[in-house]
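Record 1 of the preview.
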Amino acid sequence: MDERLKQAPLRVAGTKQVLRAVGEGSATRVFLAKDADGFIYHRVNALCEEKRVPVTLVDSMQELGKMCALDVKTACAALLG
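->
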């Protein structure tokens, strides 16, 4: 799955962009770091549940950042479709 995220031509990373994509209905899958801030974790997870967007949990924000080919940590990312 991490190769799918890394190679995806259409993806967003970061809480603000992910919440926007899920809210607009353009996110097809969300990746959420288990060690994300509790408020962010629950907000993203709740919106994904409401909009019926599948969520894949990732062990850490560091790992998710690497999966997105970023040099920084990220709490969440989304594939767009």
